[in-house]
Amino acid sequence: MSKNESKTAIQEVITPAELLKHWQGHRSLTRRVIEAFPEKEFFNHSIGGMRTFAEMTLELLAIAGPGLKEIVTKETQALNEHIDHKDQKNLVLKLWDQATEEIDTYFNQITPDSFQDTIKTFGQYEGTVISSILYFIDNEIHHRGQGYVYLRDLGIEPPFFWER
Amino acid sequence: MSKNESKTAIQEVITPAELLKHWQGHRSLTRRVIEAFPEKEFFNHSIGGMRTFAEMTLELLAIAGPGLKEIVTKETQALNEHIDHKDQKNLVLKLWDQATEEIDTYFNQITPDSFQDTIKTFGQYEGTVISSILYFIDNEIHHRGQGYVYLRDLGIEPPFFWER
């Protein structure tokens, strides 16, 4: 049995392609949560002194594309959460869609045997490639869940969680 | 190269043991979020007509252990979110710890080559073993993120998201 043959013979817990689809499914849902906010409340509404959903979204944008780019290129990226959004949701959604393409491009450059490599994202967070990507996804789910509360607080029904 | 040798030669995206550790790490954080709530507010506080964090926690308890048990035993489990908690956080935490043990026990009975098997959890939700387990984890992160907003709304600082 050659090495390539043995590779297809093994059922993986999850394949890289499945992980990418899983991530982009979550990002598609987050996009619809952004869309569900009225423009003003997207940039202004908050509860208990927390950040607005716009600020959380900028954090997600600062992490996903640049973090993945760093994983692939091995060049340290800055964590830049400050974007001149001009209080316009359309500009944020445009950046979201650019990140979607960026993620597709870079993710497909991760070699299947490098998910267990040790890395340091943004020059400071140590982990493996897989633990870092899972952190990116989990952090998005976490903040999006908070966005759901903001929407409910505003009397707006959020998209179904299970729709991706 | 024997089949067993080829198995160790391949770097998996994530191993079953890593996935279990990842899940239990999240559950450990959720446990600390439950602990952070004052007993009364755990059972009473909500925002925008949403469920209390106690009700969300009962959903998580109804899914994790029973869902995993179903995956391993292939016996359909009922989705039972009604538990006689007597408005006592200690009883819920006890159930949480029992679920932690149950998850360890059943997870280790999943054969490595069965994560891609098609299943139907709780007799109705179709997916693979891995997509179902990821859904259980994602759903917990989602609701826990909502619990963070409840805590902030109550003036309580939640545990750090990155501590597991």
TrEMBL record, chains A, B:
It comes from the Bacteria. Pfam families: DinB (PF05163). GO terms for molecular function: metal ion binding. The keyword Glycoprotein does not apply. A divalent metal cation binds at H143. The keyword Repressor does not apply. Keywords: Metal-binding. Belongs to the DinB family. This is Putative damage-inducible protein DinB.
